[in-house]
Amino acid sequence: xxxxxxxxxxxxxxxxxxxxxxxxxxxxxxxxxxxxxxxxxxxxxxxxxxxxxxxxxxxxxxxxxxxxxxxxxxxxxxxxxxxxxxxxxxxxxxxxxxxxxxxxxxxxxxxxxxxxxxxxxxxxxxxxxxxxxxxxxxxxxxxxxxxxxxxxxxxxxxxxxxxxxxxxxxxxxxxxxxxxxxxxxxxxxxxxxxxxxxxxxxxxxxxxxxxxxxxxxxxxxxxxxxxxxxxxxxxxxxxxxxxxxxxxxxxxxxxxxxxxxxxxxxxxxxxxxxxxxxxxxxxxxxxx
Length: 288
What we know:
The chain is 80% helix and 0% strand. With 288 residues, it is mainly α. The protein has one domain (9-287). Helix 3 (27-33) runs parallel beside helix 13, helix 4 (38-60) runs antiparallel to helix 5 (69-91) and helix 6 (94-101) runs antiparallel to helix 13 (244-257). The longest helix is centred in the last third of the chain and has 25 residues, at 205-229.
């Protein structure tokens, strides 16, 4: 019944979520490529994506923006997810940012256990321990305040993402899911514009091209696919597919920017990303 309502089959929903994950994988690269401050990037990206997604919702889907207590509550987490993640990428490496961001998987696991009033499985406990071990490694080695702050902001963004995934899975309509994203984008734009008031925007082909990609592709296209996919797939499945980002993002930044993380950070990234990938493969095999 759910698939007929959305127009997506299970397979199409998996493809849509994969497209979203690939779009998100380029976020770190284009955030770093753009010469603006983190708040300037958040301000303009939020403005572009909120306008684009609203136009899509109203004129393509023929739906209306839903503004209620639930969508506004989700929008708060969406707002801070965006601002924290952009700021993290300006302060630390892509490998650090996206791996620390993966705390969202752990939060969803714990939230799911609380919601179902059940204890986590042994493999769930193992993935939590492995992830936390990897995260500890990010704070070892050569210390820098910017790197430390970037790690904290990335973890905060991951927490907000987990809440977004978890709450969005409870919405019954496509317009509710997308409305929370739109409102969060708009709020992040207003907040970031306010904070960055007085800063000068450097207008170059690189700054304009990168911000258009971030607003139109990395945000708008990705969340259209995401909002459709989440009507068929559960929150944890979406989170696992979104883990394409931590695998691809550091590779993209290494190949295009020559960015390399420290030894401890690299070890932490391998543990976090590797353990989550292994967990997802074994989990999907069990359900198949």
